[in-house]
Amino acid sequence: MRSTFLLFVGLLSLFSCPSAWAEKRVALVVGISKYQSVPRLINPARDAEAMSALFKKAGFDVVESGRDLGISDLRRSIRQFSDTSRDADISVVYYAGHGIEVDGTNYLVPADAKLASDFDVEDETISLDRVLKALDGAKRLKLVILDACRDNPFTKTMKRTVSTRSIGRGLAKIEPSMSDTLVAYAAKAGAVANDGDGQNSPFASALVKYIAEPGLDLRLAFGRVRDEVLKSTAYRQEPFVYGSLGGETVALVPQALKPADPEAGARTDYELAAQIGTREAWDSFLAAHRSGLYADLARAQTSKLITAEQVRVKADDARREAEAQAARRAAEFRSQLEEQTARQTSEAKQKISEQAKKELEEARRQVAEQAKKQLEDAKRQVEIARQEAETARRQVEEAKRQAVADAQKQVEQAKREAALERDKIAALSPPASAPGNAALPAVPQMDQADIARLLQAHLKRVGCNPGNVDGNWDAASKGALESFNKNAQTKLNVQLASLDALDSVRGKTERVCPLVCKKGQRADGDRCIQIGCESGYFLNSGGACEKKPEPAARPQTATRREPVAREPAPRRAGSAGGGGKCFTFGGKTYCE
């Protein structure tokens, strides 16, 4: 719950302070098709329209457009854009039209340029250096895109005032002096570009396709533009980029902010609880997450464990009842056998006939066999009860394992559904609404209380009782971890609940600390039960059954007593003859 709250607060702070990461992006787009002194170009105007629409769709703050500008309008547009770029983070100039190179300097040719001689170049054109100076105020990126590497139509008519002055083919190579600056040519220095036969030039078509992809670094974007133009022109035209950038990703359009997963924290805690698989772990999870998908899944897992434990408790109760009943029967049989033996011995002493002695021995044998059979039946019942208890225990363990497996499957399914949902939301969010190049904050790590709570649950699972599973690392928890160190031969720091300790304890699948029972109890698997003694035995101070001592015989004295005359005893009903005592055994009557 706490980790989810921190995630929510972090996202809220981002959305409430957009100025912390928002960037100002501006662009100037110029397309010149209607040249007054040379044949017109078809695609520059359409290329400029496509790029203007692209920048507006990409969420640029300012997009200034100019079409078929003369020298005065072109200078004014560049001057005004210099003021616009002064406080911008990203500043872009796109130019489509004619460009020429004279003595290693590149110039952009406006619509009204005549260029009767090479002396007119400085007056009737705009140098590329002036365009770059207009972007000097941009903070993060200065980008000039020139779709102007066409054949120079003024070469044939332009007079040379200086014989040594050269007029090159295409544009000259440039090395920008400003940092964080890129200059992209439609064709590399000294080569010419194709105006194209389609709706747009090959260079403009590739730019529209790749340059505004959200989150794509410009260096990769221009690399894809290069590959696209090479392929579409049969490797006759190769775009080229001059300048350099730093090591950070620089994209014209920032990556769309992914929607936050409201149950990311619950999913993490659910996975941890599923790895433990005990009722304490699920109760701890539900204490932190009372509602939602994962809370419902946790309740289902708890219900399975409760049902399995109830079956085990019933089986254990049945086994203990069978054992107690067998013990009672054994005591009763032993008592009956002793009484019968004593009675038969007494009766045998009084019998005179040898036949009576034989019959007495036969009766004793029958009683002994009957007692033996009953004792064997009782033992079989005890064994059956024990087998049923063992079956119930295995069912409990299987239920736990199945609960963990089900929980893990549910986590994976929930992850897949959450991923699909995030992809759907990201696909429906337009790039223009992306406020900046900010990535989704990482889900916060588990805090110390969560680690302590899970470590306490695992310690209890392996038999090292830490007391309450509440995330409070108290003396009982430290003692439990110290007992784990002693029995698992580890040297974990008991003063704090660490991830190392959590991993070490979680890796144990069986009991580590021995089961300690109270006085008068004994260990029965993973439980303590009360010790019961048979008849004639008692539980001593050491917790073991001990036979009761025989009563001390009274001391005899040497004093002689005179015999006392006794009155004859009354005759018992059913006696035969002259006052002899009679008794019945085995369906026969015996008399003295």
UniProtKB/TrEMBL annotation:
Q: Which CDD domains match?
A: ATP-synt_Fo_b
Where does the Caspase family p20 domain lie? 23-153
Q: Which InterPro entries has this protein been placed in?
A: Caspase-like_dom_sf, Caspase-related_regulators, Pept_C14_caspase, Pept_C14_p20
Chain residue ranges for the region called Disordered: 333-365, 545-592
What ranges does the record list as Basic and acidic residues composition bias? Answer: 559-570
Q: Where is the composition biased (Low complexity)?
A: 582-592
| Keywords assigned | Signal
Q: Name one Pfam family in it.
A: Peptidase_C14
The keyword Glycoprotein belongs to this UniProt entry's keyword annotation? no
Where does the signal peptide begin and end?
Answer: 1-22
Recorded GO MF terms: cysteine-type endopeptidase activity
Q: Name one GO biological process term.
A: proteolysis
Q: Report what the protein is called.
A: Caspase family protein
The organism of origin for this protein:
Bradyrhizobium sediminis
Organism placement in taxonomy: Bacteria, Pseudomonadati, Pseudomonadota, Alphaproteobacteria, Hyphomicrobiales
